[in-house]
Amino acid sequence: MLLILRTLVLAVMLLLAFVFGGLVCLLRPRHRDNVHMFAKIFSYAAPVLGIKVIVRKPSVATTEPCVFLANHQNNFDMFTHTAAVPKGTVSLGKKSLAWVPFFGQIYWLSGNILIDRKNRNRAFETMAQTAKKIKDKCLSIWIFPEGTRSRGKGLLPFKSGAFHTAIDAGVAMVPVLASNQSHIKLNRWNNGVVIIEMMDPIETKGLAKSQVKELSKRIHAMMSNRLTQLDQEASALMAK
Predict the structure, then answer these.
(1) What are 89-107's pLDDT values in tens digits?
(2) Residues 156 and 74: beta-carbon distance below 8 Å
(3) Which CATH number do you get for residue 30?
(4) Would you state the pLDDT for residue 100?
(5) What value, to the nearest 5°, has the Cα angle with vertex 44 and ends 188 and 176?
(6) 3 state SS of 113
(7) What's the CA gap between 194 and 180, in Å, rounded?
(8) Which residues pair with 194 in a beta bridge?
(9) Number of domains composing the chain
């Protein structure tokens, strides 16, 4: 019964969000704050799903554009990670999303960037254009560097695109971690705690493209270690 009720409520909330958000996007297509607006709306669904989201901002706040590196676990990212998306931020998504009826068109209209990962040359062109947008339009980019869902099985290897983009744009990289979400089920009343933590910015100014692999490896290790700690903390909070 809970599963059916939640599914219906969630469907209604998403429909209203897309209708309202779609109208706003038509009035201000690809505006810099459209994605933030949608993120806020989606984050309101977390309590409906029985999830308590705790958001932690970095101790060293940045007002400059940056590249956010977020771990990607499952579809619940839409309702947890979104609580941390700041204004002036757009996400990078795969080009195939554009063909998803309604959602794909709004995803593009809201200002997000689509990338063709199957075409290496086009993918690099998109990342170069993204670096230019960061500088010219003072935009931050939200990227899932794993490129696919981890299903809560730790941090998968990173693809290099996000790191090339940050170095090209000369902006900092801000790791964003969500604690394990594999326990979340729609038929469970209390789905516990998910901690979203934005780590301190990591500067890329002065780095060369030849240092991408070292930078990626260093940040992956930092995020992986911190994710283990967050998972333990979230589990302890749920056990209380």
Answers:
(1) 999 888 888 788 888 888 9
(2) no
(3) 3.40.1130
(4) 83
(5) 90
(6) strand
(7) 7
(8) 53
(9) 1
